[in-house]
Design brief:
Layout (H helix, E strand, L loop, with lengths): L25 E2 L2 E5 L7 H23 L4 H7 L4 H4 L1 H13 L3 H7 L2 H21 L3 H29 L5 H29 L4 H20 L13 H23 L6 H27 L12 H31 L4 H29 L2 H18 L8 H27 L7 H34 L1 H23 L15
Antiparallel strand pairs: 1-2
Helix pairs in contact: 1-7, 1-8, 1-9, 4-7, 4-10, 5-16, 6-7, 6-9, 7-16, 8-13, 8-15, 10-11, 10-16, 12-15, 12-16, 12-17, 13-15, 14-15, 14-17, 16-17
Membrane topology: Multi-pass membrane protein
Organism: Arthrobacter oryzae
Subcellular location: Cell membrane
Amino acid sequence: MSTRVSSNDAGGPAPDAPATPGPTRAAPGIPGTPAAPPKMSRESVTIIVTLLVATFVVILNETIMNVALQRLMVDLNIDAPTVQWLSTGFMLTMAVVIPTTGFILQRLSTRAVFMLAMGLFSGGTLLAALAPGFEVLLLARIVQAGGTAIMLPLLMTTILTLVPLERRGAVMGNVSIAISVAPALGPTVSGLILQNFSWRFMFVFVLPIALAALAIGAKYLTNIGETEKTRLDVLSVVLTVPAFGGIVYGLSQIGGGQAGSRTPAVLALAVGVVALAAFVLRQLKLQKGGGPLLDLRAFTFRMFTVSVLLLVVAMIALFGAVILLPLYLQEIRGLKSLETGLVLLPGGLAMGLLGPFIGRVFDKVGPLPLTVTGSVMMVLSLWQFSMLDAGSPVGWIIALHVTLSLGLALLFTPAFTTGLNPLPPHLYSHGSAIMSTLQQVAGAAGTALLVSIYAFVSAAEGMVAGMQAAFLTAAVIAVAAVVLSTMMRKTVGAAQPASH
């Protein structure tokens, strides 16, 4: 199966994707007037809504744990390095599983993949709620992560398969509700639960929603597209563990460890880089024979490559802010977990709720005006964050976080849609997996870099100076997003003027 894209900067078609601009449809009875975008069937809407709810649940679960680590140290009688494995183990599992989702989505039916993802997630959640100690809780988090890793690529691939090109921006905008609002609610929900109940209720709260999504999917979800009997390359799967696991683990430990304890992290990072090179060479070899675990031919589409680079830069800045801002609010301002969650809530809600509107605008005007505006807002807000001190008004902090969140919203929907639109159907799952994988790596890299700068400067000049230096570094990195944003062009997913 192949897809045709316009032969300009919009898509940069691969050699096997001939360039033919699509015709402009006219509205019935009105010659020369573009037709309204085709409507989606009720079945398609049901499938996408089911996947959106499931994605919201798994992302919410991913974020509620961060606030609970201090409480778990006391209740489970474990130290900080040990409890951190509840987050590190989750992140490592995600990094290893996501690269395999391209194969999983091609090999299994939509219904089977959904049941696998939500079955793993629900089972892990139940196990976590009943965990008698740390070891079982860690196992439960790893099982949860296996299901979580599959959901977002499944959602993206399903949207690309079901949604007409003219409506993809609007639907991708709805995805931002799950991706943005869930992390925004996570700290607040976690804070409320921990203030009134045991930590187990974090999982008890999520479990009924997960089971409901699983039941709805089991009843209403239908298969879309066609499965392919591709062969699983075992060597590629083996290489993903040291490659993506080593890189993410090394980066996360470099960012969180003390100077004297970083040798194992550096070694893990080095092993990860070598294994990644071997993984890439293996995929390039398999592409000639037709069975790569992760098909890298998606990078032959120019807009996919530019969009991926833009998302990587944005994720470095975003993850840095996600880590640094709570540190500032709790360590420097002395806010409690629930108060910190409430300060961050407006930005996350604004980012998610504005997503559908941004998606509709994207379908009309394309990515360029949105991504340039968003990247400039991101740079300015991070620059202003670098000027915060111990006495900065909380209202100003909320305003800056809302500005940053809106800037990121203007980036994410256009970047996802522009990058994935020109891909032919057989690369949908691989393109989604590549984007999700690199977001994980970029998040770990951003956290490692900015937390290391914060720790280094704080040791010499104090926490406020460390925070300012880290945010300033994030602002400088974000300048690259402005440059990349100017390269964005309409792909066939954006509505083209009638004159084209």
